[in-house]
Amino acid sequence: MPRAPRLLPLWLCAAALCAPPAALPPRPRPACPAPCRCREAGILLRVDCSERGLSTVPAGLDPLTAYLDLSMNNLTELWPGVFRHLRFLEELRLSGNHLSHIPGQAFSGLSSLKILMLQDNRLGGIPAEALWELPGLQSLRLDANLISLVPDRSFEGLTSLRHLWLDDNALTEIPVRALGHLRALQAVTLALNRIGRVPDYAFWNLSSLVVLHLHNNRIQHLGTHSFEGLRSLESLDLNYNQLHEFPVAIRTLGRLQELGFHSNNIRAIPEKAFLGNPLLQTIHFYDNPIQFVGRSAFRHLPGLHTLSLNGATDIQEFPDLRGTTSLETLTLTGAGLQRLPPGMCQQLPRLRVLELSHNRIERLPSLRGCQKLEEIGLQHNRIWEVRADTFRELTFLRSLDLSWNTIRSIHPEAFATLRSLVKLDLTDNQLSALPLAGLGGLVHLKLRGNSALSQAFPKDSFPRLRTLEVPYAYQCCAYSGCPGFFAASGPRGLQHPPPDAQDPPRRTLADQAESRYDLDPEELQLDAEEPRPQPAVQCSPAPGPFQPCEHLFESWGIRLAVWAVVLLALLCNALVLLSLSTAGPGRLPPAKFVVGALAGANALTGLSCGLLASVDALTFGRFAEFGARWEAGPGCRVVGFLAVLGSEASVLLLSLGAAHCSVAAACVRAHGKVPAAGSVRAGALGCLALAGLLAALPLASVGEYGTSPLCLPHAPPAGRPAALGFAVALVLLHAACLLAAALACIWLSCGLPATGLEAAWDCAAVRHVAWLTFADGLLYCPVAFLSLASALGLLPVAPEAVKAVLLLVLPLPACLNPLLYLLFSPHSREDLRRLWPCLRGLGPLALGGAGPREPSSCDSTQALVAFPDVELSSEASDTHGLPSGALVPRQQPGGLQLEGGHVAEPEGTRFGQQPPDRDGGRAQGDPKASPAGRARAGGGGWQSSGLASGV
């Protein structure tokens, strides 16, 4: 055992090594500067001092800090060696401060720094000396500064730099020599500068560069070898420059996958333009004034997935895409394409999105070979027909946009095989019928603007429908809970809950789905689940008072009132016209001519209301079935034409009557004679012509008669500007005419001297015009207020109130005007006395046997209107101080005689017919035969004789 003692030390050493170590004291928690927030990352520390208003770097930063954020503060300078103790710092953020200069030793000691952010400061140059201290730097951001020059040795020591941002500065040229030191650079952006050209071999040493951004500069020229040496470049951005020629320098970029040079001034794409870029996947060169595209420009690009040619206005031929078999998205909008080649789908078997909007395409070839198509956009073209084989067997097609074309016909089997179609847009075409075969899976259907399309769309034809836009609100009656329409409209009062309240789990799953074709998430979920009860359909335009579902007149009160107005207007105006027609073969006096013309205009208004009442009666309870055809048909235009013609002619004639009374009074006062009767007839014909012109304007697309089933030019606030302006102009014209008539009546009454007021105001014509002006103006006030408030959106007005006013108050003057004449005008009593015996076949009427007449101060006026040969001599009444009239019969053979205070017609003449003037004029010796003799010489007063003769 001699060797045992020698092994003892070895055993002791082994035991010491195997013994557990003694407990070490815990490391103290690192200190965090007061204004900052700190977070531990293992043994290192992340310090966030951003947006703290700091003006200096905080003291007491832990040496184990690996991340330091000092962005968005007020730092103006950095002291040399301020970060010297932060040997483990890997990322330093100094963006958003006010640094204008960085000294040479500012970053000394940061041997581990990999990311440095200096963007959004006020640096006027590259801090080259400071960057030399960072040999391990991999990412440098110097964008959004004021750098205008990059010295040659700026990046000399940054051998590991991979990402460099120099965009949004003031550079005017490519820093060729400075970039030549960055052999490891993978991405550089020089965008948003003032660079005007890219010289040859500008990036010769950047063989590792993958991404190069030069967009938003002023580049006008690229050298033939500008991109020589960029053997690894995959993405090149030349958008928003001033290039005039196609960048042929890209042919040296054999690995290029994404190319953008849109928004330049390039006018031509040459033949085989991308011959050296077989790996291209995406090309964007829209918004260029391209006039020529080589037929072989896009040939043999098997990796190309996206091709965008938006805004190439002069492209008239579809490009040849042979060999470009991987193309999935083709966008060629705003060009001049007129046709598509028949073999397009054979060249593009993988095409999923075809966007050809805003072209001049008239006919579509068969797209049967493009079986993977999911979205087609053909809006704003000139397509006029969809044939049976156009979209046949496109079983994956989900969205089809054919809006804003001139499509007149669609083959009944055109959509029969589109099993996946969920969105169909046919807005603003010329369709008269829509085939429903194959459209059962639609979720969105848009048919606005097809004015000839009035067919019904039952619910059972679209079990999954969520959104429906139709030309007429009546086509929404089946989806709005209105009972009694169409086969699938459902039971009375059926209401559906809102979409958000139905099946929340289903909506949650649907919201997680993704779609690149602008389809609702619910649509994707609908395809994967079994059919469920249909939610409420959002159908527009929605039915309302002006687009009713059941009755044109929605209450019996309105219906009976309209019929009453119609009957009174037609009967009373017919009676007025008939009574005036018995006045004899001679011309009517001016006053009666205006009354007759006014009765004719009012009769037209009554006739238009009668046609509306007839439509209500014929479509009673099922107006939605005929509403669209009624609005778009000629009957509605006839009703609107008659309504506008009668209403405007009535108010114009009323203004003419008031103006005639005022002018006659002024002429009598100034000259002692009245204006010629022919001027009144000419004015009346002018009023009728103007009213006819106004009524014909909507027929020439100035205004609309078919905006509602009432066929009145009442435009809603969302209507066309022309229709809205026409409706407002009619209201203002009507109100202006009534105001002018009222002012004329007021001037006539207030301008008379006190001595002649009663005699002049009591004249029948003046009183009649005043009553009509007052009544019509009072009735038109609510019409004008509600029409303007509703059309211009000035006040929230209930459509029911507007409709009631338009149906009842607007045509009310048509029956009120003849009633006022028949009931209160002495002329009407004279005419009716003549009319009654004529109707009974008793022959001429002798007024002497008609019984005593009611005394009136206007008897002399009536005599003058009916018998111009009877002169009126005015003598002042000493008793009352008012002028009184005395009839002085003229002694002519066969003339009228006064018998017992009444006028008797001589035998052999008809009432109202004037015998010929045998002596050629008035009696020469009669001092009151002259016009001056009929006017009062002193005081300037107007006599009833002169005014009566004028009216």
Automatic annotation (TrEMBL):
InterPro entries: Gphrmn_rcpt_fam, Leu-rich_rpt, Leu-rich_rpt_typical-subtyp, LRR_dom_sf, LRRNT. Residues 31-67 form the LRRNT domain. Pfam families: LRR_8, LRRNT. Keywords: Cell membrane, Disulfide bond, G-protein coupled receptor, Glycoprotein, Leucine-rich repeat, Membrane, Receptor, Repeat, Signal, Transducer, Transmembrane, Transmembrane helix. The keyword Hydrolase does not apply. It is found in: Cell membrane. One of its GO terms (cellular component) is plasma membrane. The chain crosses the membrane at residues 560-581, 593-613, 680-702, 722-748, 769-792, 804-824. Its main location: membrane. It is a multi-pass membrane protein. SUPFAM superfamilies: Family A G protein-coupled receptor-like, L domain-like. Residues 875-951 are annotated as: Disordered. One of its GO terms (biological process) is adenylate cyclase-activating G protein-coupled receptor signaling pathway. One of its GO terms (molecular function) is protein-hormone receptor activity. SMART domains: LRR_BAC (SM00364), LRR_TYP (SM00369), LRRNT (SM00013). Residues 1-23 form the signal peptide. This is LRRNT domain-containing protein.
